[in-house]
Amino acid sequence: MGWFSRRSSGTPRRGRSDGPEMEIDRRAAVTHLRGFAETRRGVEAYVEPATSVTTTTVVLIAFDGEWTRRALGSRKDAFESCQRLGIPVYDVNQTGYPSRMREWNTRQRRGGR
User: Fold this and answer.
1) Cβ-contact 47, 56 below 8 angstroms
2) Distance from the CA of 84 to the CA of which of 34, 58, 91, 103 falls in 20 to 30 A?
3) Domain of residue 92, residue span
4) Is residue 71 pLDDT above 50, yes or no?
5) Residue 112 pLDDT
6) For the CA atoms of 42, 103, 107, 33, what is the dihedral angle to 10 degrees?
7) 70-86: b or e for each residue (b if 16 or more CB lie within 10 Å)?
């Protein structure tokens, strides 16, 4: 066994190639996203790719820049969930984040002014 390994060198790797294995309550995530989308105007979804520490996530951003993020497990699940919610959905790697999100974050740091 290596210094930082939790498995023996003879044990084959198992798992996903699209990010870490995580227990995700998809029903709770979709319920939260639906609630956000139904209570705000101009909501759009941005799908974020899985990383070595997080699974695929979705960021919903309202017209004023307010946003929320939830893990949905896979890219396919993320796009399908947002389409079922009836909101525009984008791949953040292709579009980036809208400036209104950064502006909202700045306003929040300054005390919401």
Assistant:
1) yes
2) 103
3) 26-109
4) yes
5) 63
6) 40
7) bbbbbbebbbebbeebe
